[in-house]
Design brief:
Blueprint (H helix, E strand, L loop, with lengths): L14 E5 L12 H9 L5 E4 L15 H12 L3 E2 L8 E4 L9 H22 L4 E5 L5 H4 L6 E6 L11 H14 L2 E4 L2 H11 L3 E3 L19 H4 L5 E5 L9 H10 L4 E5 L7 H4 L4 E3 L8 H5 L4 E4 L5 H4 L4 H8 L4 E4 L12 E3 L5 H11 L5 H8 L4 H12 L9
Parallel strand pairs: 1-2, 1-5, 2-4, 5-6, 6-7, 7-8, 9-10, 9-12, 10-11, 12-13, 13-14
Antiparallel strand pairs: 3-4
């Protein structure tokens, strides 16, 4: 699809309002919507609306419900802030919300959030926004808001998430697919499945990577938490979540490779006691995004121990590019978007073969060289992806920075 033919209306947009899939204050900032908005904010006013939640955490249905509620309540106290000192155009709003309920509750909640967002838009100087939506349930908030264009950031198949009302989320997905001016995909599998609905509004805009941050650096000092862990180290950084990570597979890796150390860096939304009881498993918890590359540089092999489900089939994890940018050998459960990197990654289709593959890579190194892995993602900076998005929605790149 050519951006030359796009009509953005009688006036150019004067900023972006992003309904994000994460909360700036307690989620990882590696995700595509956050990274794209940070780049756009160098030239345009950006209002990032923290995740409004697709479900109410509840015992027996959700993992760590009390912790989730507590941190969301804390986020509500933040209001509207400009949290990045050298990016005065970048604003984050934590709207007070009630997670999805019945139709009446949802309608009241949508009106309340909409009022908070429109008030914040006025305060940051956005009147003709590009609306950028990642979570489908934002549709009820966004639908009546005047805008120059609507972008549906189809980063995941959210209706396949176990903890949500899948029928309701699927309806929101359908409405966004039918209404959005542009539908962005990072998964060819998902794009192909929805091509009939998205038509010529579908656009593949692959994930980027922070090339400056995620780079080999032999002089980098290892974090203290990592320095005391002996080698060889099998490493993973990212969310430890039940819909994506195969925890049984992690247990098998630790048990079948007792002389190696399994290092896990990231927030966990499942109980970790059984896994970390093993003497060679080290869970270092969530680390600041800025420090994650320092941990990754200390891995001898990086892993992606995915479940084989609908969510993974339609995914394109950013950590793949981050691992490659660091030059790390990688072992992964195979998935569709990994195919083009097969010459540089050890891809496994049978979980029984995963631990033996890790052992082989530890012994002989993975396919390709560190330089070749890094070179494979050199064209994929987040800056280049943001430039594509600017062209797509008609944002003028010469917009002055205040």
């Amino acid at each position: 699809m050519s951006s030359d033919s796009l009509d953005v209306g009688p006036e150019d947009p004067d900023g972006v309002v992003c309904f994000a899939g994460q909360d700036w204050w307690y989620h990882s900032r590696a995700h595509s919507d956050v990274q794209l908005m940070l780049r756009l904010a160098d030239r345009h006013p950006v209002l990032l609306v923290n995740s409004i939640g697709m479900r109410m955490p509840a015992p027996g249905r959700s993992t760590q419900p009390v912790r989730r509620v507590a941190r969301k309540l804390h986020s509500f106290t933040r209001g509207l802030q400009a949290p990045v000192p050298d990016l005065p155009n970048f604003h984050v709003l934590s709207p007070v919300t009630v997670p999805l309920g019945d139709a009446r509750v949802r309608a009241l909640n949508a009106r309340s959030i909409r009022a908070q967002v429109q008030r914040a838009m006025r305060r940051v100087g956005i009147s003709r926004p590009v609306m950028f939506v990642t979570l489908p349930n934002a549709w009820e908030v966004v639908e009546p808001i005047p805008r120059t264009s609507l972008v549906f950031n189809r980063a995941d198949l959210h209706s396949s998430f176990d903890e949500v009302d899948t029928e309701l989320i699927a309806r929101f997905e359908r409405e966004l697919l039918g209404t959005a001016d542009h539908v962005l995909y990072v998964s060819h599998t998902l794009l192909d499945a929805e091509r009939d609905r998205a038509g010529d509004r579908a656009f593949f805009i692959d994930h980027g990577v922070d090339l400056e941050r995620f780079r080999p650096d032999p002089a980098s000092r290892e974090p203290d938490d990592l320095a005391g862990i002996p080698r060889p180290r099998i490493g993973y950084f990212g969310g430890l979540e039940p819909q994506t990570v195969d925890f049984t597979l992690l247990e098998r890796v630790a048990d079948e490779l007792p002389d190696a150390q399994l290092v896990l860096v990231g927030n966990a939304t499942v109980p970790m006691g059984t896994l970390v009881a093993r003497p060679n498993v080290h869970w270092l918890g969530m680390q600041p995004y800025e420090d994650v590359p320092r941990f990754g540089r200390g891995f001898d092999v990086a892993i992606m121990p995915w479940l084989q489900n609908a969510w993974i089939a339609a995914c394109n994890p950013i950590k793949l590019k981050e691992y490659l940018a660091l030059g790390l050998p990688i072992v992964s459960i195979d998935f569709a978007e990994l195919e083009r990197y097969h010459p540089l990654v050890t891809a496994v289709t049978d979980p029984d073969d995963f631990a033996p593959a890790v052992a082989r890579v530890l012994g002989a190194g993975g396919p390709g060289s560190p330089e070749a892995r890094r070179a494979a993602v050199e064209p994929d900076s987040w800056d280049s992806k943001a430039a594509v998005l600017e062209d797509l929605v008609g944002l003028r790149r010469e917009a002055p920075r205040p």
